[in-house]
Amino acid sequence: xxxxxxxxxxxxxAALMRARKKRGHTQxxxxxxxxxxxxxxxxxxxxxxxxxxxxxxxxxxxxxxxGVLARQxxxxxxxxxxxxxxxxxxxxxxxxxxxxxHPNIVPAAFQTPDYARTVIRASAPWFSSREVDERAELRKLxxxxxxxxxxxxxxxxxxxxxxxxGVASPSVMADQFDALAxxxxxxxxxxxxxxxxxxxxxxxxxPFSLLSSIDAPEVLYAESLYLGQTTDDPGRVRQYGMLFSxxxxxxxxxxxxIELLMxxxxxxx
Length: 269
Hints:
By secondary structure, this protein is an alpha/beta fold. About 55% of the residues lie in helices and about 10% in strands. The protein is built from twelve helices and six strands. Strand 5 and strand 6 form a beta hairpin.
């Protein structure tokens, strides 16, 4: 009896086939790019088996899919086979415009190493000191990749809790806010803080990002501690776009946010 096909395998296989045919390539051509057999590509496209995760980015690059295949693979197979933090970093790198809301902590791309270590250790107390250091270093390097160029344009809204509640030692918090204020003053990002006295208190559903690029649909990325969920469903993206617009409209101005960051840095000292 033939084994039932996995819905995820069928959907990704169909997406891979569409991307390949759109570029006018044969299965053999794609197999050559991915260092596998054309029979394997055929099985993947027909939904008989999944594509190895290590080959997904290469397939996306070879077919000039602008991250669409990688995002769909992550959405269909996570959390079992895809590291959602790596996926989010991949989305950031390919984006031209990012809108992001965080209610609890400074976004990973802007974290100082000491702040990152504290957050990682608190989120996963079972990590060894070496694992914490390795992840903090990776977070630092990923942030540098995102911020080293003029793009992506980065607009961020933070909840008041991020600034007013200390999640690390006073010196670490002071250094983090100094670094964040300098980043805003440089013009690299636009940052606003949403006052907690403003009602209704928006954004209670958790952190999210809206990532736009020139050649691919806008993507919504909503995250929790252990899982990130990605979708390019137009209706859902539009809803979160409306939410971000309201958060941004009600938040402090970028100038007032810089003043708040500098004030809190002094208080933590």
